[in-house]
Design brief:
With 268 residues, the protein is mostly beta strands. The protein is built from five helices and 20 strands. The structure holds zinc ion.
């Protein structure tokens, strides 16, 4: 299933199931509205359906407590920034206030010079959990979505704590929806592509991760309780680089979808 969060003019955000076109194509066609939040409990169909073009897709989840990022989880990316590959996963937090949805602008703060894209596979947690052994990780994953782990690269180099480099408002685009039908094995072999305007910048595959999805969720839950709706960004492949106001960044994870966001200047 593809689970989206969306809004219609004058209405509160709702969840819905994205349905593919009945013509045999694999393009999304309609959204069937759900009665509540599937991350909070059982839901049903309301019976309403909307053309996907008529709704505004929102971030598919607003993490209740945290977004956990993983640094240097692809060897080629660690190397391109002159870093060693860490033996244990290098973790950081992004505040939930940095989350935005598909199509929403990434705002470049005026004091940030090097605004970089990092296209990534994101894991959405479905159950409260702690100290999950790797073999039980599939039980706690709700699904997967696409993320852009926007980073103020110059600040990341000058400030040893990455709270500002990773945590500005709008620095965590998520979407376009959550895919719930992928197995851990399938999620571990997906192409990840980042394009700025029409230029391909990053082209990787989740099979190149140093620490697997199961190991990451197990390791993170080893020190902090994970809650339904928490999001884990699994690291970015090589090819990170600048994105400028006026440009549009598209991150595609094969089998999930494309997350597209324009970049704007804070002062504009
Ligand atoms: Zn990242």
């Amino acid at each position: 299933m593809r689970i989206a969060r969306f809004s219609l003019p004058g209405q509160d955000p709702a969840y819905g199931i994205v349905e593919l076109a009945a013509d045999g194509g694999d393009h999304p066609d309609t959204v069937a509205t759900l009665t509540g939040d599937p991350l909070a409990g059982p839901v049903n169909y309301t019976g309403q359906r909307h053309d996907i073009e008529a709704v505004r897709l929102l971030a598919p989840v607003i993490p209740r407590s945290k977004v956990v990022g993983v640094g240097r989880n692809y060897a080629a990316h660690a190397a391109e920034l002159g870093n060693e590959v860490p033996e244990t996963p290098l973790l950081f937090f992004k505040p939930n206030t940095s989350v935005i949805g598909p199509g929403e602008p990434i705002v470049k703060p005026s004091e940030v010079n090097e605004l970089h894209h990092e296209g990534e596979l994101a894991v959405v947690i479905g159950r409260i959990c702690k100290q999950v052994p790797p073999e039980r990780v599939p039980e706690v994953i709700f699904g997967y979505t696409v993320a852009n782990d926007v980073t103020a690269r110059a600040l990341q180099k000058t400030e040893p704590q990455w709270a500002r480099a990773k945590g500005w408002d709008t620095f965590c685009p998520l979407g376009p929806w959550i895919v719930t039908h992928l197995s851990l094995d399938e999620a571990g072999q997906l192409g990840v592509t980042t394009e700025v305007d029409d230029e391909v910048r990053q082209q990787g595959n989740t099979k190149l991760m140093i620490h697997s999805i199961a190991d990451l969720v197990s390791h993170i839950s080893g020190f902090t309780t994970l809650l339904p709706g928490d999001v884990i960004l699994t690291g970015t492949p090589a090819g990170v680089g600048p994105m400028l106001p006026g440009q549009t960044v598209q991150v595609t994870v094969d089998g999930i979808g494309t997350l597209s966001n324009p970049v704007v200047d804070e002062d504009a």
